[in-house]
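sorry for the late reply, my laptop died twice this morning and i had to redo everyting from scratch. anyway the thing you sent over, i finally got around to it. pasting the sequence first so we're on the same page, its 412 residues, then the predicted structure underneath. double check i copied it right bc i was rushing
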Amino acid sequence: MGVRSVSDGGHLGIKYPLGYDAPGSWWLSADSWPNFPIHTGDNSAGNGGNGYFAGSLIARSYAAFEPLNVAHAGSHATADADQTNIAYFDQSATQIAGVGGDGGNGNAALGGNVGAFGSFGPGAIATGDNSAGNGGDGTFFGAMVHAPVAVYAPINIAVAGYNSSAHADQTNNVVFDQSAVQMAGVGGDGGNGNAAIGGNVSVAGTSHGSQQTIGGSGLASDQGGTGSDAITSGDNHAGNGGDGYAYGGIIHATFAFYYPINIAVAGYNSTANAEQTNNVVFDQSAVQMAGVGGDGGNGNHAVGGSSDIFSSIFDLIGSDVIATGHNSAGNGGNGHFSGSMVDIDVAIYAPINIAVAGYNSTAEAHQSNNVWFDQSTVQTAGIGGDGGHGNAALGGDLAMHLLSDLHLLDHA
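ok and here's the structure:
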């Protein structure tokens, strides 16, 4: 369960008194007017942090195990040699790099409500650009390498001299675990039940170039109606999966060498017996993921704020004045992968069984081998995340009243 938090922009009301040519000396700083004087949006809550990785992750494992079993009987002698080997080579690796954090659940990022009377320059009001519960992007540069090497050479020898008996037994249970899980540049999943909402905007303006009294209340405007790009309460994001980026290569190269040798040699009028049992498992499987976009969350809302505009017919609204859209909710992140993904598995298993008998002699060499090679690979690269369910991305409502100057003037 993610952390529930709220990031809320303040509520702002602006009134400019009669006779002020520029409102910079009053409630607002001079350098903020007329560009971007009001900005109560750009709030964020419960978003996962981005993950960046540059360089390489290298896991190099080397293991050598050479059991030797020898039984040598001289003249009129008996020699017994028993050996049991249980070997487990764990050379598995889990490598994770450049993974963006998941977005939280139940967060809210809300733009503040704005009520303004007066004139506004370009880009005057922006209560949108809020984000909540979005997964962070994952970025990976470089190489990820996992190259384990395992060498296992069991040897079993029984040698009987003149009129002698030699017996050598060897049992080997061996597991080579050289599996790997490698993940790079994976975007975090978006959270669930988040809300990113632009604030409501109410603006009243008058005709260009005149100082007019509004409704007999002593409120005035100086520079006319709203300009271009005056109101932006959209561009909100909620519960979107982060993008995944992977550059470079992911390499899984495993090498396993296993040489069981079984030899029985009997001299004149002798008996030699060598037995060997081998149970071997080679697990060289790999799961490689790179450039995978995070899944979008469920039940998220990204809504643009409502806008009410009042202006005179002599100063109509300029181009691109109101933008309450460009909202997104529960979208899966994009997956990007550049480079190569390589899985190289080498397993060598060479059982040798030799029985040599001299004159009037008996030589026996028994060898049983149960071998399992698992060199399967799952490779995933450049996969976009799935979109969520039950999400809403809505543009804000807009109400405009274009009135003549006479409706906004006080003739008392």
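The longest helix spans residues 405-408.
thats about all i looked at so far, will dig more tmrw
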